[in-house]
Design a protein that fits this description.
The chain is an alpha/beta fold. It has helices at about 30-40, 95-110, 125-140, 170-180, 200-210, 250-265, 280-290, 300, 310-330, and strands at about 5-10, 10-15, 20, 40-45, 60-65, 80-90, 115-120, 145-150, 190, 215, 220, 245, 270-275, 295. α3 (about 125-140) packs across α4 (about 170-180).
Length: about 375
């Protein structure tokens, strides 16, 4: 009997739990169609907005590598190097809403069993921007999208009322959630920035305001490297660079920590795990820390010959998951989701070499 990889997440039935994240792999109808043909269970579209978008006059994304012989990180290709991370300063979709809508309708009609989550973004702080959120939400759901992902986490937006700039403002989160929920009745995922000490609190506000899931982790704010010989950044325009986002394997461990913190605090709430998934082992780790859905970006983009949508990758992910379920006698990922959650404890709870260790504090007289 073939293993059934169907996964229910935020009330939606995914043919498998693997989803392409909101990024270049989901920037167009052609790519999304190709991804569904390859076997991905869902996509989160590249973020759709209403404001004019124009990217930098140069490379938008680079891939950084390292090797055992010369273990420095660089985009420069060297012999026997392996993937370390991606870095980008790409903005949200420059394709207007009016172009997205017929494309989304055709995608959903062609693949009715695949989940299409529309990522949307508008500003904050005014009634006009709340109406923009509502316009975007209403439009994409009317053409057949199954859910929304609210982008409150892009680490490199020019506008200070967008993306990561507003991700942890509790008033803003509540106002956006209220505006969106007034006009649509579909699952809402909220994508928050991981680079904050108030992530858990911000997520709690989103859940309380009606979010069905939190998506973690978006790329981490970061800078590209400078070459010591040329004194040039490995990606720059006219010698200048600004903050971008780091993704790929390099952020895996940090992403897992964020997911675990959220899962421990809100064990009954849904989390869509993102950050460094390159194969089944990484996906497995997100699941055992509480994620019920897995989003992939860098590994799909890096796959040569796939057009950036990870054709071989999705076959490997589903094949390895099916094999694991069969070998372990599991019926779904729910059988082992969250099993690592309670094994992550405070430092004081980890056994020490001696019984009388008290944390380095001198005993009072």
């Amino acid at each position: 009997m073939p293993i059934d990889l169907t996964t229910k997440f935020t009330g939606l039935d995914f043919v498998n739990p693997f989803v392409l994240a909101s990024a270049p792999p989901t920037e167009s109808k052609a790519k999304i169609m190709k991804a569904f043909e390859a076997g991905w269970g869902g996509v989160v579209t590249k973020t759709i907005g209403l404001h004019p978008v124009e990217n930098v006059a140069g490379p938008k994304t680079i891939y950084q590598r390292t090797s055992e012989e010369k273990p420095y990180v660089s985009r420069n290709k060297r012999a026997d190097s392996v993937s370390h991370s991606s870095w980008n300063w790409e903005l949200i979709s420059d394709q207007p809403l009016e172009q997205w809508l017929p494309d989304l309708k055709e995608i959903k009609e062609t693949y009715p069993d695949r989940m299409v989550i529309a990522s949307i973004m508008a500003g904050a702080g005014s009634a006009e921007e709340m109406k923009n959120w509502q316009k975007l939400a209403t439009a994409v759901i009317e053409v057949g999208c199954d859910a929304l992902e609210l982008n409150l986490s892009c680490p490199h937006m020019d506008r200070k009322d967008m993306g990561a700039h507003i991700a942890n403002d509790e008033e803003v989160i509540r106002s956006i959630m209220k505006a969106v929920k007034e006009v649509v009745d579909v699952p809402i995922w909220v994508k928050l920035t991981p680079s904050t000490s108030s992530l858990v609190e911000a997520a709690g506000v989103a859940y309380d305001a009606g979010a069905d899931s939190i998506s973690l982790c978006n790329t981490f704010p970061s800078l590209p490297l400078m070459d010591p010989e040329t004194l040039k950044f490995e990606v720059e325009v006219d010698g200048l660079v600004t903050s971008g986002g780091q993704g790929g394997l390099a952020i895996l461990n940090q992403a897992l920590q964020k997911v675990n913190s959220l899962s421990k605090t809100y064990p009954d709430q849904a989390i869509s795990g993102i950050g460094g998934i390159k194969g089944f082992r990484e996906a497995f780790n997100f699941i055992v820390h509480g994620a019920g859905n897995l989003q992939v970006c860098t590994a799909a983009m890096e796959e040569k010959g796939s057009g950036g949508v990870g054709i071989k990758l999705i076959q490997e992910l589903t094949g390895d998951l099916a094999d694991y379920l069969e070998r372990k006698g599991h019926t779904s990922i729910e059988d082992f989701r969250g099993i690592a959650r309670e094994r992550i404890v405070e430092h004081s709870q980890v056994r020490r070499k001696s019984d009388d260790y008290n944390g380095g504090f001198a005993k009072s007289a």
